[in-house]
Amino acid sequence: MILEIFGFAVGLLYLFWEYKADAKMWIASIIMPLISMWIYFSKGIYADFAINIYYVLIAIYGYWNWTRRRGAKKSTLPVSRIPVRVLGWSVAAVLVLWYLIAQVLIRFTDSTIPWADAFTTATSIVALWLGARKYCEQWLFWLVVDLVTVPIQIQKGLIFYPILYSAYCVIALLGYRNWLRLLPK
User: Fold this and answer.
1) Taking each helix axis from N to C terminus, what angle separates 114-132 and 84-108, rounded to the nearest 10 degrees?
2) Going by C-beta distance under 8 Å and a sequence separation of 6 or more, which residues neighbour residue 14?
3) What mean pLDDT value characterizes the chain?
């Protein structure tokens, strides 16, 4: 319960910094997955456990990608729209990963929710990569993840994480709107 509360608090900081398109979000994105790994493993939500390993790695990449020098002057990666081709590949990646992760969960774990767990995991993998590239549409992928995650966590008896992920739904909508305003003119 203490870890869930701490993870909840770090998750709120992450949301605030992500909404602001602040690179500090990636620091919180390293801490929160470490907490979540313990919680998800103990609840038997194995794909969400495993994705948190990816979250730590992509957080390192995201921080580097958002803050590295570009050109002659120091600047950060600008917010942008996802190219249509990248969107197509992203949706295809979600579908392929969803199927593959579900098969692993069905064959090698005692998961009681392999398809739902695999879906949120596959979509999260792609959404986080889109976020690391600073595409506005990453928020829409997260909205889908959050909407599916809340009932899973309630079913598994978690208390604070469903509240956090419900807040993520609202922040995803607000974040998308805000990032559209941050687009370079």
Assistant:
1) 150
2) 25, 28, 29, 32
3) 89
Contact yes or no for 116/3 (Cβ under 8 A): no
Given the structure tokens 């979540």, which residue do they identify? 36
CA distance 29 to 11: 8
Question: How many CB atoms sit inside 10 A of residue 78's CB?
Answer: 11
Q: State the amino acid at position 114 in one-letter form.
A: P
Task: Return the pLDDT at 36.
Answer: 83
pLDDT tens-digit map of 163-180: 888 988 998 999 999 999
State how far the Cα of 53 lies from the Cα of 157, in Å rounded to an integer.
Answer: 23
Alpha helices in 20-83 (DSSP H): 25-43, 46-67
pLDDT value at residue 74: 57
Q: What is the Cα–Cα distance from 37 to 20, expressed in whole angstroms?
A: 26
Contact 120, 148 (CB under 8 A): yes
pTM: 0.80
Q: Are the beta carbons of 109 and 164 closer than 8 angstroms?
A: no
